[in-house]
């Protein structure tokens, strides 16, 4: 049995649906990556990269090209984010977090909207790529926007993840990936907690914040 065949074999059943190993393992790593990102640990990026590699197999089994593309983006952005955070720690000794400016928010929203229209249009023109073109495109582009904001250290990163979760839960269940659907619900809770933690750090005096960030990023 090949590694790919094993990854896409059944692990157990959940709500009458079969959960495959790639869906379970990849999403557990994704949860770990989100929790590590909340603590601003450098380990968040290797965890995201490995999660992306495994989830490619899960989305391939569900015939969701946008999901596969999303994981390829996760891998690339994980490498870029790791380099961004390494540079931030070298420059200031900590990973700096802040709210994006209104101009940055506008560009992020506009880029997400334009990207969703472009990718959704491609999926619609080639139906074999995805059975749910617009939801698939939205999650693909939304994930890219969220990870870009995370790498920049913007608090808006958490809001972007919330927007992805709203569509991700029903799409995962309807695609035969129930574990992904359940994990999206857990993501929602972690995102709320992480958003609050990052927001508090933006209100902490700089000297105290640096001390806290150095401690949790070690």
Quick check: average pLDDT?
79
N→C terminal distance: 40 Å
Task: Report the sheet-strand fraction.
Answer: under 5%
Major β-sheet annotation: 2 strands, antiparallel
The tally of structural domains comes to: 1
The ordered H/E elements are HEEHHHHHHHH
- What percentage of residues falls in helices of 4 or more residues? over 70%
Which descriptor suits the 3D outline? globular
Number of beta strands: 2
Task: State the main characteristics.
218 residues; mainly alpha; two-stranded antiparallel sheet; disordered C terminus
Outline of this structure?
The chain has helices at 3-7, 21-38, 44-61, 65-92, 102-125, 133-152, 156-174, 178-202, 206-217, and strands spanning 10-14, 17-20. By secondary structure, the chain is mostly helical. The longest helix is centred in the middle third of the chain and has 28 residues, at 65-92.
Please give the structural blueprint.
Elements: H1 3-7, E1 10-14, E2 17-20, H2 21-38, H3 44-61, H4 65-92, H5 102-125, H6 133-152, H7 156-174, H8 178-202, H9 206-217
Antiparallel strand pairs: 1-2
Helix pairs in contact: 2-3, 2-8, 3-4, 4-6, 5-6, 6-7, 7-8
Keywords: Cell membrane, Membrane, Transmembrane, Transmembrane helix, Transport
Membrane topology: Multi-pass membrane protein
Family: Belongs to the nicotinamide ribonucleoside (NR) uptake permease (TC 4.B.1) family.
Structural summary, described in words:
The relative contact order is 0.14. The N and C termini lie far apart (40 Å). Helices cover 78% and strands 4% of the residues. It has a two-stranded antiparallel sheet with strand order 1-2. α2 (21-38) runs parallel beside α8 (178-202), α5 (102-125) packs antiparallel against α6 and α7 packs antiparallel against α8. The protein is globular. The protein contains nine helices and two strands, in the order αββαααααααα.
């Amino acid at each position: 049995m090949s590694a790919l065949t094993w990854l896409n074999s059944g692990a157990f059943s959940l709500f009458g649906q079969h959960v495959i190993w790639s869906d379970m393992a990849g999403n557990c790593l994704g949860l770990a990556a989100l929790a590590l990102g909340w603590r601003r640990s450098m380990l968040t990026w290797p965890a995201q990269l490995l999660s992306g590699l495994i989830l490619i197999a899960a989305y391939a089994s569900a015939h969701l090209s946008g999901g596969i593309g999303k994981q390829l983006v996760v891998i690339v952005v994980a490498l870029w984010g790791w380099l961004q955070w390494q540079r931030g720690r070298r420059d200031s000794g900590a990973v700096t977090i802040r709210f994006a400016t209104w101009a940055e928010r506008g560009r992020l929203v506009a880029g997400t909207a334009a990207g969703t229209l472009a990718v959704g249009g491609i999926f619609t023109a080639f139906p074999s790529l995805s059975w749910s073109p617009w939801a698939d495109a939205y999650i693909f582009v939304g994930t890219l926007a969220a990870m870009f904001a995370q790498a920049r250290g913007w608090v808006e990163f958490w809001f972007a993840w919330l927007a992805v979760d709203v569509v991700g839960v029903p799409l995962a269940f309807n695609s035969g990936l129930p574990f992904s659907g359940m994990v999206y619900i857990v993501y929602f809770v972690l995102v709320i907690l992480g958003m609050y933690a990052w927001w508090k750090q933006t209100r902490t005096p700089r000297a105290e914040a640096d001390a806290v960030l150095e401690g949790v990023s070690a």
